[in-house]
Design goal:
Elements lengths: L2 H11 L3 E5 L2 E4 L1 H8 L1 H17 L3 H6 L11 H5 L5 H5 L5 H18 L27 E4 L5 H6 L8 E5 L1 H9 L3 H9 L2 E5 L14 E5 L7 H12 L5 E9 L22 H14 L4 E2 H10 L2 E8 L6 E8 L1
Parallel strand pairs: 3-4, 3-6, 4-5, 6-7, 7-8
Antiparallel strand pairs: 1-2, 7-10, 9-10
Helix pairs in contact: 3-7
InterPro entries: COMT-like (IPR016461), COMT_C (IPR001077), SAM-dependent_MTases_sf (IPR029063)
Organism: Lentinula detonsa
Pfam family, one: Methyltransf_2
């Protein structure tokens, strides 16, 4: 038996393949997913490539016992000889890895997007956050929105709203060049516009008073960098700030009275929240945050945390609604 066949037999033990006769194997639902779902395949590729590359350097970071006051570099920073993850990803030599990353993020957005649907007026009880209640005359700005996965999910149920999707130039170029038919239609209608924007620089004055969304991006950064993003947004006097991110809920029961609580006691299993907390630490030097962390961070950035909306169909995510303080 060849080494490849022995490897397949080992995977069959875990249900990835199945042995239908002696030394003859067939696909299962698991392996068929890898064949038929390019977004899932890209996400697995991301975990096994960038994630696996950084892991050997993680013990070195842990052993130095950095404090919150002095956030540690990421394990990936050590792997890449001093490049931040997104700088490395957007470098000319990593074009293929950048394309894979964006496909993976699109897949994750659609998976998590089950939590947003339906968002229309006819069935609001089934939507964890009422995006349709946002004023139609307010632009919705998706900061670090990548190739536009979130608006793609929401716009079919928001016929009167418009989005601006901000990201760095390589991402915007890829989004425009690879736009789907529906995305091209929305762009032609003026309902979606891509804008090259560094989130660490001031926002254009034309966006003053807009609704700003930060979906799965603040977790990439330690508090000091996250505050720089929030401070730039605060200068625009947003109508509303929506942070969509995983919420870490400590497993210790507390009798402390809190002005803010997480409805339903949270969002189900904390495995994804704590797992991605370590992923953020490894790749970016960032972290997932508790309710108290978010409250403090937003307050320091000039915002008041108003309410938490757990996204029950997601992997521990919530819409954290904030207003200008």
């Amino acid at each position: 038996m060849t080494l490849s066949a022995r490897l397949i037999r080992h995977l069959a033990v875990f249900g990835i393949f199945k042995e239908i006769s002696l030394n003859t194997f067939a696909n299962t639902a698991a392996s068929s997913t890898l064949i038929d779902n390019p977004e899932f395949r890209a996400h697995l590729d991301l975990v096994m490539h960038e994630g696996r590359a950084a892991i050997p350097f993680f013990p070195e970071i842990v052993s130095k016992r950095y404090s919150d006051a002095v956030p540690p570099p990421s394990a990936f920073f050590l792997y890449s000889n001093g490049q931040l993850f997104y700088d490395w990803l957007h470098s000319p030599s990593q074009t293929d890895r950048n394309a894979n990353f964006n496909i993976a993020m699109r897949g994750m957005a659609h998976t998590e997007g089950l939590a947003f649907l339906p968002a229309g007026k006819s069935v609001p009880p089934f939507s964890d956050y009422t995006f349709h209640a946002l004023p139609a005359n307010k632009l919705i700005v998706d900061v670090g929105g990548g190739i536009g996965s979130l608006p793609t999910i929401l716009l079919p149920s928001l016929p009167d709203h418009s989005f601006i999707i901000q990201d760095l130039e390589p991402v915007v170029n890829q989004a425009v060049e690879g736009a789907s038919l529906s995305m091209k239609l929305w762009m032609d209608q003026g309902r979606i516009r891509f804008l090259v924007q560094d989130c660490f620089t001031p926002q254009p004055s034309e966006l003053d008073g807009a609704v700003f969304i930060l979906k799965n991006m603040i977790h990439n950064y330690p508090d000091s960098r996250a505050l720089a993003i929030l401070s730039n947004l605060r200068k625009t006097n947003p109508y509303k700030l929506l942070v969509i991110d995983r919420l870490v809920i400590p497993q210790l029961k507390s009798d402390n009275n809190q002005s803010l609580t997480v409805p339903h006691g949270g969002t189900g299993s904390q495995r994804a929240a704590t797992f991605y907390d370590l992923v953020m630490a490894s790749l970016h030097g960032g972290k997932n945050r508790t309710l108290e962390d978010w409250q403090k961070l937003l307050e320091q950035g000039g915002f008041k945390l108003e309410k938490i909306y757990p996204l029950r169909a997601s992997t521990g995510q919530a819409v954290i609604e904030a207003s200008c303080s």
